[in-house]
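tl;dr need the bound structure. longer version: we got a ligand (zinc ion) that a collaborator sent over and nobodys looked at where it sits. i said id run it. heres the input, straight from their email, havent touched it
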Amino acid sequence: MKRLFLGLCVVLSVLGFSQIDTAQIVVRERKNTPQALTKPYVILISADGFRHDYAKKYNAQNILKLAENGVSAKAMIPGYPSITGPNHYTIITGLYPSHTGFVDNYFYDKKRNDYFGMSMQSKISDGSWLGGTPIWSLAEQQGMLSASLFWVASNSDAGGTRPTYYYNYHEKFTADEKTNIVLNWLKLPEEKRPHFISFYFPEVDKNGHLYGSESLEVQNAVQFVDDAIGTLMDKVNGLQLPNVNFIFVSDHGMIDVDVESTLEIPALLQDKNRFIINNSQTLLRITVKNESEVDEVYRELKRNKTSGYKVYLTEKFPKRLHYRTADDRFSRIGQILLVPNAPKIFLEPTSKKTPGKHGYSPFKVPEMKASFAASGPAFRKGKKVGQFRNVNIYPMVAEILGLEITESIDGKSCTAKKVLK
Ligand SMILES: [Zn+2]
């Protein structure tokens, strides 16, 4: 019956119901190799916008217990800009956003003369937009099955191979339904059971944006996610599989911004014939269509600048953010960047005012920093480490699963060495 149901789901997807389709998509002919069967399991959970201090601040008991029984970091440093799409994809590829080409939730690609948006189904599911090899793709290529419940780009063939089990993004499942999906994956016969599972919660970020980073609603969302993780861990542990590891992460933090006195986009940039502007409020990227005008535009922007933001040539952007022209492998960042000083934002008159934001440099605005805690047989017990960059998750997961990293990545193995047995 289950087979029939899964088959039907694939048919429905092929017929084009994917926009509203809540059905699982299964690549049916795959199975774990005998070698993969001997490897551990990793469940990578992300709670969007779960700031580095939220677990303690709001007494998220299950996440604190996870840290206590395993390892935790003071904070995890997101890639720049500290926003959702780029950072989920950075965590899953071990590459900075400039190196994956996922440079913003929304960006323009000069060579394609086309726009990419994280919520555009046709773009996010098309792996040709994105560089790097996601962990699920690496696992599948090395004979190990994987599954994803809503991780950014898990419905794309980026890196060459989709997970064996995945969904197109939607928010119709309850926490219990999500937990049951993971449990059902882990109850599959060994040959069909995914060893790498990635799992996503949007609630904390949503409430942070709508009600502010310190709101009661954020506290409630933290409790909601914590309860869901507690239930998931209890039920998974109840299956008594020999070697399951849990890794809890987030993509970025959250801060309250100044919505009363916002920054105006300089008038010069209104000329659509000369510029393509991408304003994510905490970062404004400028593509000057005529390359020979870049220096002149930069000087003019500097000359007419009001207070509250900085103007940079992308060529000379701070090195540690890895967001310079030299890093821009897909030529998507633009040549000039306007960077608001937190808590300032660039707000267009038509945009909705919401109090919580992220996107700033995590080095300048510590509220941008994310969370990390993990436990399971692969991890040490009671180990606390300092902050580290989120690109280091990739080599950690690859090490646990026994996967060979096949291309050059930005992530370093130093964090794995500290937290793994
Ligand atoms: Zn996010």
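gonna send this back to them w/ a short note. Residues 68 and 236 are 18 Å apart (CA to CA).
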